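pasting for ref. prot 1 ->
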Amino acid sequence: QVQLVESGGGLVQPGGSLRLSCAASGSILSINFMNWYRQAPGKEREFVAVITSESGTNYADSVKGRFTISRDNAKNTVYLQMNSLKSEDTAVYYCNAGIRTVTNVNSYWGQGTQVTVSS
């Protein structure tokens, strides 16, 4: 019933910038938290950033000061602005959201979008 679709990934040079988007669709009554996670090859999935329905934010230490998370409630979309990118940021980035529908409350995941930082 609910889908999350990420977009905006790609190849960028070190020091460059990229903005990721994740749009939620379906029979959505409300969205609580919206997260970004990432997973590099051979590594465990790690938390990147979160934004709540009350616009509170938190970031992993590794991206603090470089990444900014935001949301557009009217569009059910969360964004991740990534600046000063470095090779260590290379990973598949996943969005995650806590969503209430007419039938239940659940945590949903997108399929992910690849971000590659390389010269």
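and prot 2 ->
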Amino acid sequence: QVKMVESGGGSVQAGGSLRLSCLASGYGLSSGCMGWFRQASGKEREGVATILSDGTTTYADSVQGRFTISKDNVKRTLYLQSPILKPEDTAMYYCAAGHRYGASCSLLPSYFVVWGQGTQVTVSS
């Protein structure tokens, strides 16, 4: 079985940093995609960043150059970091795992099949 567990969310002042972690366990993730998604109140869930087993990354335009997705294969942990947060980053953040269907991972939530429970990130002005 496969399981994803997020941690690191909380309340942060605008301009502060973010570092979310997601522990992945089980089989079926080594050759697939892993990613971070977020859903703000009243809005649809959107892809933030994805990463392939070989390290290839994809970012949403809204976070390009500001967010970084990475992983530690030894610790089997996925990370999402940002040195400068904005109020519009406020959302429930989810980590997920899915299958690879192209040269890079899709940012569409429908391509991912295993999800964590989510962790809330609130950025105040």
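The longest strand covers residues 18-25.
The radius of gyration is 13 Å.
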